[in-house]
């Protein structure tokens, strides 16, 4: 049962990695076919585009899980961390509201408004299989936003962007390097 929850908790990461690996291999095959053998496989380009679309949306959901979406936060520098958590959670309510509305619109489009005969150019399958990524990924993203806010507010965990660069720390390190007579940093 533990393995099942591990997969569920990391589904966006697994899907994104599989999609990236597959469409990069497909595009490499297309390049080799063009350059070495002088012909093109038309369905590879189309499938790669569809896979890239899925990759982008599942990657956005994974970024939401990591707390890695871009935010303007300079205005919070003078506020206590606890207050900042609540302000960001309030802002996330707007994000969640947008996601829920977008999920509704996507489902309505796919199942009610989309042309029944709209299909892929070269592969022939119905494009609803491509568009279904939208409600799935935005639902996952909404769940991840709620999880991050739960971890921040209820658990008290510091969920920060893993790629966040603190410019003040870099400036301090550079200053220490200039203060050292041998020019060594840190």
Could you characterize the architecture of this molecule?
By secondary structure, this protein is an all-alpha fold. The chain has one domain (2-179). The chain has 7 helices and no strands. The protein has helices at residues 2-9, 11-35, 42-66, 81-113, 128-131, 133-155, 167-179. The complex comprises the extracytoplasmic solute receptor protein and the two transmembrane proteins. Belongs to the TRAP transporter small permease family.
Large-scale geometry? globular
- The DSSP helix count reads 7
User: Which residues sit in consecutive blocks of at least 5 with pLDDT less than 50?
Assistant: none
- Overall average pLDDT: 88
Category from helices, strands and their pairing: mainly alpha
The main pleated sheet reads as: none
The ordered H/E elements are HHHHHHH
Instruction: Give the helix proportion (percent range).
Output: over 70%
Quaternary assembly: single chain
Family: Belongs to the TRAP transporter small permease family.
GO molecular function, one term: transmembrane transporter activity
Organism: Jannaschia rubra
Domain Tripartite ATP-independent periplasmic transporters DctQ component: 24-152
Topology at a glance:
Blueprint: H1 2-9, H2 11-35, H3 42-66, H4 81-113, H5 128-131, H6 133-155, H7 167-179
Helix pairs in contact: 2-3, 3-6, 4-6
Pfam families: DctQ (PF04290)
Subunit structure: The complex comprises the extracytoplasmic solute receptor protein and the two transmembrane proteins.
GO biological process, one term: C4-dicarboxylate transport
